[in-house]
Amino acid sequence: MKSTVVVGDRDRSNDLGGRRPAGLLSWAVRHRTAGLLLAACLLTACDAATEPPKAQLSPEAIALRDASPELVFKGVLAGKPVHLLVHDCEVFQIAGDPQGQMTWTRVLRTDPYPFAFCERQSLVVKDSAVIVTLGRRAFGSGGCCAVGGTYRTTDGWTWKEQ
């Protein structure tokens, strides 16, 4: 049997009766497939870049979302709407604007104490007033609370220790 190879021509024949060897066919198929996959990946990356990024939640929005209902008050005090949140032994008044941005204003916090963490916090509504209990425990101490106490407000701004 004789083998014929024509240089420069894609159709090479050999002693297999004019059929292409399996190695050449699979090489061509592999490279075409790889090229198509690369093109698909590049086009997918272009589509993803045109989408606007999703809005990231601020740390305040995350804390408000994750707060337990017992630590949030949204109602009326002294004839005005008030939104209060107890977070990490501090009380914040929350105000929002029409664009969805929120601002937190700290209205109450415990006295500073070195190496202390929030051990106890609660919020109770009673007789048109909000009563908040805050307690920080010193690191390594045997119990609560190094600083804190129970505070009462009727307007959301002025707090009196009980």
Offer a few descriptive terms.
single chain, 162 residues, alpha+beta, 4-stranded antiparallel sheet, 23% helix, 36% strand
Entry summary:
By secondary structure, this protein is an alpha+beta fold.
Topology:
Elements: H1 22-50, H2 59-66, E1 72-77, E2 80-87, E3 90-96, E4 102-109, E5 116-126, E6 129-138, E7 147-153, E8 160-161
Antiparallel strand pairs: 1-2, 2-3, 3-4, 5-6, 6-7, 7-8
Describe this protein's structure.
- By secondary structure, the chain is of the alpha+beta class.
- Helices cover 23% and strands 36% of the residues.
- It has two helices and eight strands, in the order ααββββββββ.
- A four-stranded antiparallel beta sheet has the order 1-2-3-4, with helices on one face. It has a four-stranded antiparallel beta sheet with strand order 5-6-7-8, with no helix packed on it.
- β5 and β6 (129-138) form a beta hairpin.
- It is elongated, with a radius of gyration of 35 Å.
- The termini are far apart.
Mean pLDDT, all residues: 80
Low-confidence blocks of residues:
none
By oligomeric state, this entry counts as single chain
Number of strands: 8
Shape: elongated
What order do the SSEs take from the amino end to the carboxyl end, as H and E?
HHEEEEEEEE
Instruction: Report the structural category.
Output: alpha+beta
Strand order of the largest sheet: 1-2-3-4
Number of helices: 2
Instruction: Report the sheet-strand fraction.
Output: 35-45%
Query: What value does the Rg take, in angstroms?
Result: 35 Å
Largest sheet: 4 strands, antiparallel
Cα distance, first to last residue?
109 Å
The helix content, as a percent range, equals 10-25%
